[in-house]
Amino acid sequence: MYQTTIKKSVELVGIGLHKGSPVRLKLEPLEANSGIVFYRSDVDVSIPLKPENVVDTKMATVIGKDGHVISTIEHMLSAVYAYGIDNLRIIVDADEVPVMDGSSASFCMLLDEAGIAELDTPKKVMKIKKEVSIKEGDKYVKLSPSSDLNYDFTIKFAHPVIQEQAYVLKFTKESYKNEISRARTFGFLHEVQYLRSKGLALGGSLENAVVLDEKKILNPEGLRFDNEFVRHKILDAIGDMSLIGMNFIGNYEAFAGSHDLNHKLTLELLKDAQNYEVIELVGEKTRELEKAYA
To answer: Which residues are known to be catalytic?
Structure first.
């Protein structure tokens, strides 16, 4: 199994969640061992996708360099990771990735349009060898050894529509597209009003998020899944875990996980080389993974 990039450059324009302004996003192929690299074309700054370049995790995963940032990268990265893409240049002309409809479905369509190209270098993946976890109160995120890849997420909100939801994704590219990619981000009306008072979430609307008041969903079309909320949390987690720098083999489990806990988990994993093994996928051991990303 070989490293991949995209066959051709593709682009789209969408609204930025926080500024509410149009953002042009362009994806370009990169050669083997380049990794995922973000580029701010408006300020001529490249930011490699690495845990040490994360500068904020309060409301989204934000990377930065030399005082310049790119916000809300996790939905785009979730799709890139699910497609098994190793090398890619992600160009934006503003400080955030467009939010599109609040899910990763638009990014999946963009990657389908671009196509996947195999390179002539073996693919590297990280095999989780020891359990690694981050706990804060009753919240936790955890990676553990496994021969395959599952995302097991539970959320609990004191809201009549959400309450407690749990979902397990047995990961393949196809299951991701069918079960996860269309799940939208969500928020509460009082939070949106507060953020707008601070000059944030100016691009947020019922077109790109599920919004709830104290009792109900405000979106007239309702939910795409009964448990869309927890499915979106898995979408976020997949994007956040891409900061590891490669696909991994192991189980991810979370209760009330967040961007912040996911970031701390990647740092905890990478700080001790005994937690993992990086393997090149050659010969027999590639077959199962090839099926996953078919």
So the answer is: 259
